[in-house]
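Two proteins, back to back. First:
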Amino acid sequence: MYVYKLLQLYHQVPSSHRRKAEGREWKMTTITTSLHPHCNTIATVLSPLCHSSSIGNHRVQLHKKIPHLFLSSSSSWSRNSSRARMSSERLTPLPEDRIVVGLGLLSVDYLATVASYPKPDDKIRSTSLKVQGGGNSGNALTCVARLGMSPRIISKVANDNQGRDIIEELETDGVDTSYIVVSKEGNSPFTYIIIDNQTKTRTCIHQPGYPLVPDEISSANLLSALHGAEILYFDGRFPDTALEIAKEAVSKNIPILIDAERLREGLDDLLELADYAVCSAKFPQAWTETLSIPTSLVSMLLRLPKLKFVTVTLGEEGCVMLERMSDDPQMEEVDVDSLLDTLKQRKDDTVTVPTCVISPKAKLRAEGIGTVTGRLILGTAEKILPSELVDTTGAGDAFIGATLYAICAKMPAEKMLPFAAQVAAANCRGLGARAGLPWRSDPRLAPFLN
């Protein structure tokens, strides 16, 4: 009976939309295969249709008639679907100010999974190939959208098939693409990503498109993009354009978060205007030319007096945040490197879910650098079973997307870091930068959003 209903609904969808869906593997919705062996085929076609904004009537129809067949793409969601519905009813309201604006890279990712990374001059076969949207900014804002916020993206693509696919996928996830510049020349950015199934690492080969220059965004469009924004996010691309937009944001008291992934042209000027920074593991020491992560974080806060916090992500080792606090001349000084060692000793390695260990407020001293008043916070990562770990592509972008949400929701740091780590861990269970990004109703997020 269920299969008959599915087939009926499938044939009610216009043929043009069916053709558009067929042949594309969008794992946003699956239908349990225990009902009928043909369900997989039907689900592949219906999956994008259920989430396409262009055929909303059919989506409503499908969910109304057979809502219990539509479960999440991951097996863990399928097992907990009823829990997800229950938890979503108890979620705290979304932040009133939920507009997040981002400027940065959009691309198409070609993800090839291999048994092991090839040696020079080897010829190997991939075990799977998937094509998805990518780019730091696109990934982070997709995460923001799935968490219920209203993101707008400023970027540039070419007027080619890849560019159209990039825009369509973002719109399907609820990202406002009105401020994307579509170039008549050049190519849209794309990235070849080789995923080593043995080591669970990935290698990226990126082909950039034409840069977005300031003249391509009119004053009217810029003002429109920033109107009502709660926070502005930069991934470090298009430095000239980013700086112009950042200056406008500062004049409007819109806080800025910078993704400091690596040393880039123009990044120093952007960091001087930033309120928050999230860095890759290698960036702080490379930028400050210091010998340890804690010392480099102190150096960053001293060099960038506007920064409220800086977080460095460390993959499976978690993250470290230095949060600035009001100065107290009477407070005792503490060596920041020794303090991090103490926090590591206090960490409970038996806990598998993300947690954090927090230092008291103190004057944190970095030898030869100076002191900053604040808290040092050690965040842990979720311990993912090897059988569940699929791909780490985009984990940092997911962490940033969750951090953007947490700032808008005014989460304290001790809640923000485990939340961001949980979102990043969920993403590691899917192939590519977006397939595993959780939705707001995911039961794994309930402890943070209830």
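And the second protein:
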Amino acid sequence: MGIALAGSSGRDMHIEIEHGASAQETRDAFLTARQTGIGGSDIGAILGVSSFKSAVDVFLAKTAPNPSDAQTELTYWGHAVEPIIARRFSEEHGVELIRPNAIARHPQHDWMVGNLDGIIPGPPAGVLEIKNVSAFGTQAWGANGSDEVPLTYVAQVAWYMAVQSMDYAVIAALFGGNAYREFRVERDLELEQALIRKGHAFWFNHVLTGVAPEPQTPDEAIRLFKQDDGSVLNADDALLECCAQLKDAQARAQCLNDEVERLEVQIKARMGHTARLAYRDQLLATWKTHSARRFNARRLKPRIPICTNSLYSSAKRASFV
């Protein structure tokens, strides 16, 4: 059952959860509720600043009939340590947090929802967002007490402040399982309005109409269009030009692959049984015997006098048949 949040002018959405429901059933209920609007973790993806999901991911999550998506190790441990991080915040500030068990909804824009980790009691009340960050992600964050956080989290807490009409948010983060920091983000009404415009356009132009956003990667295109319907699309001039450019790019990529192979064979032939290739004191390449012989072409990049940038960027292309 939803609870009233102190210091909030937002509106809670009632979620029916049977007594004794399993953790998965409870999670499914919240996922179903989140399908009824744009949430804080969605807006960063819609803006293209999230490293966790894309606008296509958000579209599929909102329009998919089954909310029981697979829980990753990352999300599992994020939820598992959340109460521990919340307790640390309470101890640091001597406050008893309000832990919502309902998804909040904006009083005017009912498509704006927020699944808040906590409310800092006022006055003035504020948003608490909890993050469990790997040790590898530390560099993307600023010093303790600053507002230097990844853009996707700026968007997330700005969204929650808009939904709850609160003037500040604190992100309590645990880094690598043993380093605790806090970050404070103040409400920015100009940013808030920009986010609302973006979210409104996505909800009404894509989710409600069922028209997917343009895929940005081959993988997104596959996930959007898993099954063909057997029909034929007649190409217009723009699509015809795309096909011509694709054929040209594929031909150039093949030439570059052939050139890479030719150079690799030439260098390996000169190296023979030697394990390393050097120029003065600089190690250029290694070719050692393990379970297989491997050639490290990246070390040669500064020494190859042909179309170096094109040659190496071609390795990032996606295959398309």
